[in-house]
Amino acid sequence: MWIGTRGGLTKRRGVRRFRRGALSAWVAACGVCLPATMVLGQGDSTARTDEPEPATLVVTNALIATMDARNPRAEALAAQGEWIVAVGTVDQIALHVGPETKVIDAGGRLVIPGFNDSHCHFRGGAELLRSLNLYGVDTIEKVLALVKERVAGAAPGEWITGSRYDHTLWGDRWPTRADLDKVAPRNPVVLRRASGHSVWVNSLALERSGITKDTANPPAGEIQIDPGTGEPTGILLESAAGLVRVPRGADISPVERHRQRKDDLLAGLRHAAELGVTSVQSSSSLEELELVRELKADGLLTLRFNGWLRLADARGLTRRGIRSGDGDLWVRVGFLKGYIDGTLGDGTAAMFEPFADREGFLGLPTMTQAELDSAVLLADRNGFQIGVHAIGDKGVHMVLDAFQRARLANGQSDRRHRIEHAQVIHPDDIRRFGLLGVIPSMQQTHCTTDMRFAEKRVGINRCKTSYAWRSLLDSGAVLAFGTDWSVEPLDPMRGVFSSVTRTNIQEMQPKTGWFPEQKLTVWESIYYYTYGSAFAEHLDHVKGTLSVGKLADMVMLDADLFAIDPERILDVKVDYTIVGGRVVWDRARQRSGS
Ligand SMILES: [Zn+2]
């Protein structure tokens, strides 16, 4: 094996003897007990202990952005099994190379901690990898052509399902069932909108679901009605989407279904590894966590999976002795997830003032304040971390109130409750994130996707404190970043690009960024996608920075994010993904087909 130096890195011969005090201080600061090993530092205080044990993995000749403020840059690191045991210069780390060590020469490429997607719907996203994907299709004609193609390959009467269409891409006119009827007269069609909060169906799907002009709106849902005819238009919002029941392969045996779910998850894992995602915090269930554990036991799990469960199940989970944080560093129970409102794209977020484009309408809150308070109080008392979906300013306010009341009633604790999305925030509520220690769990691409219609929907004033990353950081809050996959693609580069530029990905507008005062630096964008996300799952002591005593979860990129023009961030590819010291993605190998 060979350790070379290129790309402007310096190679120094000889390693100085080390001062024991420096090592203990470092290790103590990490809060983790480690085998005696080496440590790096700045200047001449670095050195080594007795001969270090050979590492299982060494990454060298790299530009390492550790995300650790005490030691932000390094050239090389060594891992022993799952753990990082040394971070330092090329020469220092060379001492860890033994005959069995796998050495990766980065050739001067950038290495950062693996991305931790703090909010995604992993199985849903994975499932969609094999269904009609309408993401980013920018005209209704193209959407209909894709549906027509599916219909041509289906038997009459067979359901056609698709998802991630976004009508705001083609002028914000809601599509109708008549549009779909033209291309699918004999097949029921149900297409889920990008947000996942509404569906667009054709006439046959309405008929099969028994939805007529006389069907009442379900609670917190709306069957959109044509004001002229009084007939359903084919758009079903929020809970009304649940009125459409697509028969799910009743002929599939449980064994077959189990296999299919496993296959879906494996496809999702491959996708994540390619994109450099080494941890996810995902909607889940106890059954699914069991399935993920099976994959782990089979040696097939290539990322760390934190699954969130339902807030409504707090009582039942408590009875079963289940808590947030149960599990291990691979498969874990996350927070309990609740919802307080809908979305901006669907026009169902809960607002203080009516939507700018819908007179008198304040959105669709899913719970009263009293209901939310008691659900939060109970879960908090039983030791759960809580994350509540809130998008409108009123929704966010209600959740902050509920968290504040729980804290008053149950006492202060390090629960790290979260607000999922936190998109439109009342100016007076921003500082409460910092004060209450509430984590805004945000998805940067929601900003750059929504900004095309946000001003029209909520008016320019409310946009000033929307997707307000900078203001939230100034409040003292720790952000956690993610994608909401499959609402948005899982690719972290889109998120980094979005928070650095606040420019939309479709048209690359506006050039200077939408409300540019809320932009973040490249460092911050990565930091809150790695360390911030780890903090949000109570795992910042073992994840999120490349430091001694933390897990060896990292990615190597084909370009230096800190040096390139921000517009090029979208083209950056992941060359290596390493999880727990094991290579789970190697682009060169993929290319050569080996
Ligand atoms: Zn979500």
Helix content: 25-40%
Rounded to an integer in angstroms, the radius of gyration calculated over CA atoms is 25 Å
Number of strands: 24
Overall 3D form:
globular
Instruction: Pick out the low-confidence regions.
Output: 1-48
Cα distance spanning the termini: 20 Å
Count of helical stretches: 17
Tell me what portion of residues adopts beta-strand conformation: 15-25%
Write down the overall mean pLDDT: 89
Molecules bound to protein: zinc ion
Please state the structural category. Answer: alpha/beta
Largest sheet properties:
8 strands, parallel
Question: What spatial order of strands do you see in the largest sheet?
Answer: 8-15-16-17-18-19-20-21
Characteristics:
six-stranded mixed β-sheet; disordered N terminus; 17 helices; single chain; globular; binds zinc ion; 594 residues; alpha/beta; eight-stranded parallel β-sheet
Describe, in plain words, how this protein is organized in 3D.
The strands form 4 sheets. Strands 8-15-16-17-18-19-20-21 form an 8-stranded parallel beta sheet. Strands 3-2-7-22-23-24 form a 6-stranded mixed beta sheet. The chain has 594 residues and is an alpha/beta fold. The model is unreliable at 1-48 (pLDDT under 50). It is 31% helix and 20% strand. Helix 3 packs across helix 7, helix 10 (369-381) crosses helix 11 and helix 13 runs parallel beside helix 15 (492-501). The longest helix is centred in the middle third of the chain and has 22 residues, at 254-275. It contains 17 helices and 24 strands. The radius of gyration is 25 Å and the shape is globular. Strand 19 (418-421), helix 12 and strand 20 form a beta-alpha-beta unit. The protein binds zinc ion (ZN). Residues 119, 121, 484 line the site of zinc ion (ZN).
